[in-house]
Structures are given as C-alpha cells and as structure tokens.
Amino acid sequence: MSLRDAIDNFYERLVHDAIEATREEADTADYLTDVMCVALNRLPARYYRHSIDMMFYLADEELKEMKEKTLAAVKQARVFVREHHRD
Questions:
Q1: Residues 6+ positions from 44 with CB-CB distance below 8 Å
Q2: Per residue in 23-46, pLDDT tens?
Q3: Fewest CB atoms less than 10 Å from the CB: which of 29, 31, 36, 43?
Q4: Count of domains for the chain
Q5: Range of the domain at 36
C-alpha cells in the first residue's frame, strides 16, 4: 500500500453524498465529475487515515456545518459547470 492510499479527504465523501442528494435525471457522469471537482476545489481539505477516527473526533455541530458548506459548494459548482460547459 502506498502512502497516498493510506489517507482520504473527508470532503470527498460529503461531496459525493451531496451530489447524490441533488441528482437530476439529466445529469451525466461527466457533468457530475466536473461538479465534484469544482466543489472540492472550493472546500478545505480534511484528511484522515481511518474513518472511525474521523467520526470519533468530529463534533456533531462541526459535521452539520461541514455538510451545509458541502451542499452549498455542490449547488454553486452545478451552476458554474453549467455556465462554463464546453461542447
């Protein structure tokens, strides 16, 4: 296992969940991948090694705030990607 494989960014999971919660019928995989990239670039990185550690040390209020910021970033990213679509 490489060092890179040993860590994850918690926001990746939150962004994925927010994208799934806001999924629209016309969304394509390419569009959603772009949305995910744009949203992640607008959020801070929050790396962890073991997901159980992240959940144990994360306060409920902090998780709620992270989810709210993530949903806002995904909504903004959807607009950005739509407006900057290239054929």
A1: 11
A2: 999 999 999 999 999 999 999 999
A3: 29
A4: 1
A5: 4-83
Q: Are 38 and 80 in contact (CB under 8 A)?
A: yes
Pairing assessment for the beta strands 8-9 and 47-48 based on DSSP bridges: antiparallel
Secondary structure class of 17 (helix, strand, coil)? helix
Name which of 39, 22, 46 is nearest 76 in CA terms.
Answer: 39
As given in the structure block, the two tokens for residue 30 are: 């390419």
pLDDT, tens digit (0-9, with 9 covering 90-100), for 58-70? 888 999 999 999 9
Q: How many helices (H) and strands (E) does the chain have?
A: 4, 2
72 near 43, Cβ under 8 Å? no
User: In angstroms, rounded to a whole number, what is the distance separating the alpha carbons of residues 66 and 73?
Assistant: 10
